[in-house]
Amino acid sequence: xxxxxxxxxxxxxxxxxxxxxxxxxxxxxxxxxxxxxxxxxxxxxxxxxxxxxxxxxxxxxxxxxxxxxxxxxxxxxxxxxxxxxxxxxxxxxxxxxxxxxxxxxxxxxxxxxxxxxxxxxxxxxxxxxxxxxxxxxxxxxxxxxxxxxxxxxxxxxxxxxxxxxxxxxxxxxxxxxxxxxxxxxxxxxxxxxxxxxx
Amino acid sequence: xxxxxxxxxxxxxxxxxxxxxxxxxxxxxxxxxxxxxxxxxxxxxxxxxxxxxxxxxxxxxxxxxxxxxxxxxxxxxxxxxxxxxxxxxxxx
Lengths: 198, 92
Known about the structure:
The complex is a heterodimer. Chain A is an all-alpha fold.
C-alpha cells in the first residue's frame, strides 16, 4: 500500500472519533429508529384514529408473562455489557460466560414470544383479527425477528470467543454486536409500553 | 486499543434501576389509580427514562464523542414529527 493510501485510510478512520465498525452500526441503528418509528407511528395513528372501539390489550394479552420476558431481555442487556467489559479487560473466561448468558437470555425471550404466539393463535387471536391483530403481530413480529438475528450474531460471537478471537483486548466485535443488542432491548422497552400497557 | 478508555459505569446498579422502573410501570399500568390521560403520560415518561438509561450507559452514549451523539440524535425529531403531527388529526 502506498504511503498516500495508508494516510487516507488512517484519516478516514478518525471520522467521528470512533472506529469504523462502531460508526457503521450507529448509522444502521439510526435507520432502524425510523423503521420502528414508522411501525409505532402507524399503530398510534390506527389506534386513535380507529372509528371502532379498540380492544383492551390486557384482556387479550398476558401482561405478567410479557413483563417477565421484558425483564429477561433487560437482564440479557446487562450480561452483554458485562461481556463487553470482560473483553476490554481481556478476561476470556468472563467473556465466554457472559456471552453464553446473553445468548441464553435472548433465546429465552424468543421462546417465550413463540409460546405467546401459539397461545394467542390457539385463542383465535390472529393477524387477521382486526387492526389490533395485524398491528400487534407486525410490531412484535419484526421485533422478534430482530431478537432472533441478535441471538444468531451473538452465538457466532460466542463461537469466536471460544476460539480466542477476542483475546488481547480485541473488543470491537463485541461492542458492535452489543450496540445492536441494546438497541433491540431499547425498542422492546418502548413497544412493551405502547402495545401491552396502554 | 484506543477507545473504551472511559470508566465502566456500575452496570448492576443500572440493572436494578431498570428492574425497579419496570416494576413501577406495571404497578401504574395494572392498578388503574390514575386517570387515562395521566396514565399514558406516566407510562411514556417511564419508557423514555428506561430507554435513556440503556442508551446512555449500556450503549455508552454518555462517553462517546459529541459529534457521534449529534448524529444519533438526528432521527429523533423526525420520529416525533412523524407521530405527533399526524396525531393532531385526531385532536388527542
